[in-house]
Amino acid sequence: MLTTNPLAPFLKLCTVPLPLALLVPCFALHGAELTPWLDVSAKAELNWSQQREQPARLGNWWHGHTGQLPQAEHSWSASPVVAALALHNETPLSAHLHLSYQPDLPAASGITESWLQYQPLPWSGYRFKAKAGWFYPALSVENNDVAWTSQYSSQFSVLNSWYAEELRAKTLELSLSRPGRAFSSPHSQQWIVAAFRGNDPLGSLIAWRGFAQHNLQTDLTGRINFAHYPSLQRFPLEKQPAWVEPFVELDGRTGWYVGWHYQYQQQLELRWYHYDSNGDPQVLVKGQYAWDNQFNQLALQYQMTDQWRLLAQVTDGTTEMGWRTVLIDYRAAYLLSSYQTGPWQLSWRYDHWRQQDRDDTVGDDNNGNGSGHSLAIHYQLSEQWSAQLEWSRLNTHQASRGQWQGWPVQRTFGNLLFGVVWRLE
């Protein structure tokens, strides 16, 4: 399914079942250092979720439904469970592995990132770094916790939820940094350039299901199901199955991205990226198309005071499959405000998104839009335990649901979550 992973020899060492692998540090360690050369961090949640206005036909998309929240009924959930391992020594070379366990979704259980990193000592104040493997580009200012989770809420913004599902590739990334401290300046910059393969179906989920809000990170060999829309059962889409394997190489072409980071002291950070999959949209291999997907993204993080922090992220792009069989413009953005005092953290996030259908395929309307509010309260019980209460409400319009008679195109989803979080660092 996937091309050869450059970290295959390292990954062969990680054959212990994931739940057991995550339990070992709990009993063996008081800290997060297994040995002087292996660091481990982990995070797990146990939550009770209560849903509002999400009947069965608008349930989980991986069960063939069309909902845009991961839960479809009141339930307990022992997930996500994630772990990050870093293998290092006294050389500039290190290896990194991220694992995830989602009992409700096998496609989100396994390896989510794995890469090698080379970072020599600074030269004339400048820092060089090379990464090779499967990993997220540093697009998100929200997902800054263990194994690409969020410290602000259990569920990610709709933008980073999509990245968690469909965005990763076999990548070679080079970066050059100019730290302000090395030049007696309050300004720091970083320049990034990368080439990648193995992410050709990027865009499949937002074309039909639309954007969704969750915390599901797809395994590097995972397959994500979505609803079997009637349009996928007739020409010209009859060869497209109701699933996507996001991390496969289909057309033999190399994608690329460039990025720029700017930081002012510890107060302000900006990140800009241009991402181009360079896909051949007419290539079809075993039911998967190579999508031609390009987007620009701008992210901001601003530490307003010691207690208040502001985050924002916006992505604007276009994606095409077939000969204008599916052609959509898309945009997703969020604004997040977080306040922390003592053991309390209060975070509020506003999401907005849209997909604009620009193709001429009859009976396959991919238009969609929506907005949402999320409020999360965290209380630190101890060094390893915290309690969380999270409320989310999405107001969505997804035209693809109208392919079934009587199914609501416009719908409001609500979710209330209460639980505990355990972490090892």
Strand content: over 45%
Strand order of the largest sheet: 2-4-5-6-7-8-9-12-13-16-17-18-19-20-21-22
State mean pLDDT (0 to 100 scale).
Answer: 89
Overall CATH class: Mainly Beta
The overall strand count is 22
Shape: globular
CATH architecture: Beta Barrel
Instruction: Kindly provide the radius of gyration, computed on alpha-carbon positions and rounded to a whole number of angstroms.
Output: 21 Å
- Provide the CATH superfamily: Porin
H-E string:
HHEEEEEEEHEEHEEEEEEEEEEEEE
Characterize the largest beta sheet: strand count, sense, and whether it forms a barrel: 16 strands, antiparallel, barrel
Instruction: Provide the low-confidence segments as ranges.
Output: 1-31
What percent of residues adopt helix (DSSP H or I)? Answer: under 10%
Describe the structure.
There is one protein chain. With 425 residues, the protein is mainly beta. It has one domain: Porin (Beta Barrel). It contains 4 helices and 22 strands. The strands form 3 sheets. The protein has a 16-stranded antiparallel barrel with strand order 2-4-5-6-7-8-9-12-13-16-17-18-19-20-21-22. A two-stranded antiparallel ribbon has the order 10-11. A two-stranded antiparallel ribbon has the order 14-15. The chain is globular, with a radius of gyration of 21 Å. The longest helix has 11 residues.
